Amino acid sequence: MITARGLRKKFRQNSGESFEAVKGIDLDVRKGEAFGLLGPNGAGKSSTMRMVASVSPISGGELRILGMDPAVDGPAIRGRLGVCPQEDNLDQELNVFDNLYIYGRYFGLPKQVVRERVVELLEFAKLTEKAKSKVEELSGGMKRRLTIARSLINRPDLLLLDEPTTGLDPQARHVLWDQLFRLKHAGVTLVLSTHYMDEAEQLCDRLVVMDKGVIVAEGAPLDLIRTHSTREVAELRFGAGEHADHAEVIGDLGERVEVLPDRLLVYTHDGEEVLAKTHERGLQPLATLVRRSTLEDVFLRLTGRTLVD
């Protein structure tokens, strides 16, 4: 569905100097899978998504979408794509039904076909009762479901989702996850960028972690956790300013110890054993927690904890 080799994207800045947002990445997205792009701000995710959507020309390397070259076959590719942007760009002046209907007509579909698809998508998005409502009357979750429904009006072979659940409450996020899961099992290939690690673990068959324009890891979520982390993480909280000193005392109890301002993270295959040996060495944490390693542990290890603006 997507093949990229040495894909690059450069931008010309106001100073006249060029900035390379994507620095020669390789991608392969297979038919019917959910593929994720993870990375902090400035990692190159959005630039990659825009090239895949065939709305931003590549600066170097090779890119094929659905077997076609975006530089030559852009309109044909876009006709077979569904795109859900990060920000909802629905027409506020139209009701829910017309937002879908008019968008469907852009693809040149017959009126009756579009009407039938609108009815199907309203049911899919759980918005049938809101068909005549104006967009401004909808909740954030409803607007997001409508945006995704709109991206499906042309029955795309490939659906691109840029931060699909940003700003939604947990209930709305889980409703969307269920819908995207159903789409994948219906044969739609999904490519999504997200900041939510639990979302990536739930939805993605495979993913890449990007940082500073390059891919730093690739694989299935569980494989990435096994490769870049341990089975468990023991979290130990001590008094303010004590964590660095205590890390020296228990540094050999795990494969890696990370010192944070409010706690110590001990990466280990047996968290309970770490807690027992910590007490044996005379340390008394104020609070402890043993949990499974997550994709977030992998993400932070590969991209760092420093805030990127």
UniProtKB/TrEMBL annotation:
UniProt GO BP: response to antibiotic
Highest taxon of the source?
Bacteria
Domain ABC transporter, which positions? 2-237
Q: Quick check: keyword Transport in the entry?
A: yes
Classify the protein's membrane topology as the record does. Peripheral membrane protein
- In its UniProt entry, what is this protein called? ABC transporter ATP-binding protein
Q: Which GO terms describe its molecular function?
A: ATP binding; ATP hydrolysis activity
Q: Give the location in the cell.
A: Cell membrane
Recorded hits in InterPro entries, A to Z, give:
AAA+_ATPase, ABC_transporter-like_ATP-bd, ABC_transporter-like_CS, ABC_transporter_ATP-binding, P-loop_NTPase
Record key words, sorted? Antibiotic resistance, ATP-binding, Nucleotide-binding, Transport
UniProt family annotation: Belongs to the ABC transporter superfamily.
The UniProt entry's GO CC annotations, sorted and at most eight, read: plasma membrane
